[in-house]
Amino acid sequence: MAYPFQLGLQDAASPVMEELLQFHDHALMIVFLISSLVLYIITLMLTTKLTHTNTMDAQEVETIWTVLPAVILIMIALPSLRILYMMDEINNPSLTVKTMGHQWYWSYEYTDYEDLNFDSYMIPTSDLKPGELRLLEVDNRMVLPMQLTIRMLVSSEDVLHSWAVPSLGLKTDAIPGRLNQTTLMSTRPGLFYGQCSEICGSNHSFMPIVLELVPLENFEKWSVSML
User: Fold this and answer.
1) What average pLDDT does the segment 143-163 reach?
2) What domains are defined for the chain?
């Protein structure tokens, strides 16, 4: 999760988030180089009084500043398209979980099990235990196995919501009457926090998401205890 005064993105916990972080750095470096070049040219034009007539009216220069931006856009577009297709790809999911957004809590249903579903409410500040995080802790965490492909089906029962977990690179809109799909896979165990990312009413800030990723053996024990 994020820490105070953090400037960058959260540490990646899934292959998709690792790709997104790499693309972010790639695009940022291109922007930095373009900005440096433009700043240098502006400084040069303001500080020198000499004018090179051949440079001001040259087909070669016009060709360069037409072709170069196109090449830069291609360098940004190709990795971006690759990640988009990667995020939409579903490879034989081992587990399917249906997430429903409500005003203002989440409900989870493990569709591969006969009767495994629960609601997840935020724990009020007055009920927090020492070490727990304000506005982020819930009474029922969603427990999932790590290193397995999990399909998330996201929808809503009332207004627009958005199910988002930054560390896993997930953000899927929950729309009433529509079932959206996304893929989730964690490369390591741990607790991962998220929040509703669509303004959904007065208590929009009070419907957090907590994922507990555990080894498969622990998940099986948890699922048996919940049935």
Assistant:
1) 93
2) 15-88 (1.10.287.90), 95-226 (2.60.40.420)
